[in-house]
Design a protein that fits this description.
Number of strands: 21
Helix content: 10-25%
Radius of gyration: 29 Å
CATH topology of the largest domain: Immunoglobulin-like
CATH superfamily of the largest domain: Immunoglobulins
Structural class: alpha+beta
Shape: flat
Number of helices: 8
CATH class of the largest domain: Mainly Beta
Length: 433
């Protein structure tokens, strides 16, 4: 399907057509364009567009295309692209109980929209086209070409320094606070395993920071999230409590002045620390005989087991999927599994720092035995048995090929900014209804 965009032009621009003189008395009257397109407030990534039809009763639709795509499309193809877009939007909203129709998506009278997801220094075309009830073209489209501005990055000071403090250090976590010398300039900070960045120059580190941010933005863009580099930058004092670090491991906190386009300025500040040894402070026996295990995986390819007892509920999430979908015995340890233990009645949730368990599946029965040390410093001894409630051994979906980016690069998302940034769209204008 043709991809739609939302875009701009530098100053108010009007599209109007003037009829030509007749060549002869029997020549037909030339068709006059029936839309006026106004483009204003052009920026690198945003624009305001208004479409005014000559006839307020005309049913039409309009949107923005990349100029290179629009140049290859006839009006019939433009109409088909609109129709495909409508179909996707109708299907999307149907998931949430909304019943949209073609008629509800078509436009009458003056219509405007402020776009905000443009590519800088790029040529686009606004296309307005009269459509019938079946989204077929009527008449001739009116098109207006414009180009977005080049994106400029606000300079950041190269002499910016950082005070980095690490507190509440444990085998699984640390509270990290970063205080910049300039509270008005933006900067990037994060933590990495020390061995992963050992020997890298500041230039190599900065290139890596920008690349990591861009990959994260691209990944979450597939799920409808509209992130920018600025969402990963800080201004003024900032802090974050990490709670899923590896035990007895050297980490390095890095901080550097960075502009909105990901350009670093000055030296990369570094602060090294090491998590403590993994030591359990107490033990707890978990014995359940009436557990229920779903021998299948969820949408993200993770195996799930729900184990219930009289006083608490377990929710176990384990990978890899392959192990959970075949009969027989297998082991899961901290090298190949993520394991979450939840006591819903206490609303506590812990990832396991160390896990050594065996799962045995025999027909409709299973056992889950072994030990694990969780992030709350408790060593759990498991002796869980029950039935396999749903068996999908032969039909379990494959694990997602691409996992979410590592937590170390997602401070902005972890702080809750991601939900506000979500904006699922095929056409920005269509989805933001």
């Amino acid at each position: 399907m043709k991809k739609f965009f939302a875009f701009v032009a530098a100053s108010l621009m009007l599209v109007s057509f003037v009829s030509c003189d007749k060549k002869g008395g029997n020549d037909p009257e030339p068709e006059v364009a029936n839309f006026e397109i106004q483009v204003s407030n052009v920026e690198a990534k945003s624009v305001s567009v208004k479409v005014v039809p000559a006839d307020v009763n005309v049913t039409y639709y309009w949107d923005i295309f990349e100029a290179s795509e629009a140049a290859k499309m006839t009006d019939a193809q433009i109409a088909e692209a609109f129709k495909e877009n409508f179909d996707e939007v109708i299907a999307y909203y149907a998931q949430y109980g909304y019943e949209l129709t073609y008629d509800s998506l078509l436009v009458k009278g003056e219509n405007s929209y402020d776009f905000s997801k443009l590519e800088p220094n790029t040529e686009y075309v606004v296309v307005a086209l009269e459509l019938d009830e079946n989204i077929a073209a009527k008449g001739t489209s009116v098109r207006k070409t414009f180009k977005t501005l080049e994106e400029k990055e606000d300079p950041v000071p190269a002499d910016m320094t950082f005070n980095i403090a690490v507190d509440s250090l444990s085998f699984s976590g640390a509270y990290i606070a970063v205080t910049p010398s300039n509270n008005e300039a933006t900067y990037y900070w994060s933590i990495y395993k020390s061995e992963a960045i050992a020997g890298l120059t500041d230039a190599q580190l900065c290139a890596g920071f920008k690349s990591e941010i861009e990959e994260t933005i691209e990944y979450y863009g597939y799920f409808g999230y509209d992130l920018t580099i600025e969402d990963f930058l800080s201004k003024g004092p900032d802090a974050y409590k990490y709670n899923s670090l590896d035990a007895n491991t050297a980490y390095t906190v890095v901080a550097v002045a960075m502009g909105s386009l990901g350009t670093c300025a000055g030296a990369v500040a570094k602060y090294n620390f090491e998590t403590t040894e993994l030591v359990a402070e107490s033990t707890e026996d978990i014995t359940i005989e009436n557990a229920k295990m779903a021998d299948a995986c969820d949408a993200y390819g993770w195996w799930q087991m729900m184990a219930m007892s009289a006083d608490s509920t377990f929710y176990l999430t384990v990978s890899p999927v392959e192990a959970a979908t075949v009969e027989g015995s297998y082991t899961i340890d901290d090298m190949d599994a993520d394991f979450t233990y939840v006591l819903l009645d206490k609303e506590d949730q812990y990832k396991f720092a160390k896990l050594d368990v065996e799962v045995a599946v025999d027909g409709e029965n299973f056992t889950f035995t072994g030990t694990g040390i969780a992030m709350n410093a408790v060593e759990y001894h498991f002796n869980i048995s029950g039935i396999v409630e749903v068996s999908q051994a032969s039909a379990a979906p494959a694990r997602a090929a691409k996992k979410a980016p590592a937590a170390k690069s997602l401070k902005a998302i972890k702080k809750g900014n991601l939900a506000a940034k979500k904006n699922k769209f095929v056409s920005e204008k269509l989805y933001n209804r």
